[in-house]
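I hope you will forgive my troubling you with a question about protein structure. I am sending you one protein, given as its amino acid sequence and as whole-number tokens for its backbone shapes. Thank you for your consideration; the sequence and its tokens are set out here:
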Amino acid sequence: MHIPSESRYTDTVGYNFCGKSGLQLPRLSLGLWHNFGDVDNQDEALKMLKYAFDKGITHFDLANNYGTPFGSAERNFGKMLHDNFASYRDEMIISSKAGHIMWPGPYGDGGSRKYLFASLEQSLKRMGLDYVDIFYSHRYDANTPLEETMGALSDMVKQGKALYVGISKYPEDKAREAYRILRENGTPCLIYQGRYSILTREIETEVLPAAAENGIGFIGFSSLAQGMLSDKYLNGIPENSRAALSHGFLRKSQITDELVERLKKLNAIALERGQTLAQMALAWCFHQQQVTSLIIGTSSVLQLQDNIDALKNLHFTNDDLWRIGEI
């Protein structure tokens, strides 16, 4: 094992233990779903990686189909890793996933053992890695028995191609079954990844309690609702925002007048707290103690620093939470 001659460790963001495991994750993790593909600014992408790592963000979250075109985020990350971070691999948590469409035909989608193993091998090749720290089943596939999907994840750990495994976006009953199978296989589930924000709170009733009962960590994504929970859309749709781009999942039609009014009310509360709307939205997620980390997706170093500054004020009064909940 190569030991770096000089560690870049810093504790700006803080760390939480992931469920009942011994693994600690930074409270903020950098997601590479957007802004790291071939259509994006590679210089800015590298600056964000360096800045994040220097601030203690040690977890980088990817998937096989991240980036435009599919796979380009992993490939670009792999090159940046090789050129700039090679000696720091052991100070990083790198995750990938498979489960959504990646290539045409019956073997490029879903939860089959065939697809998951092929995808992991391709991801490792794109990133130039021998293993990933966390590998996820990216979604529940009703056409594949859970024993097959979870068996594939377990074998990845036993073969040394993944250190830990997790699941993402599974319904609560299937998540519980997945936890049981993985535990019986001797490769307990580390983490559940799910959508969580002020605007999307469904996981609070079943998913979070199930994870807590089973000692599973939770990492949230889209906590800024793809940028909607920021001051970006308070006065229309700016150029180069996600809603204005032709690629991606956020559409102009989602920025409705009703949503904008809600965002303005939330922004007023954020200003009272001395935070931007984005900072409050991130900080709010941590009022749930089960939240281990949040995945942030930023398009610039300035935006990344703004997100990190959210950690300066994580305290919410009961009145704050009530007012936000009402909105």
Observations:
- Residues 257-272 form the longest helix (16 residues).
- DSSP finds ten helices and ten strands in the chain.
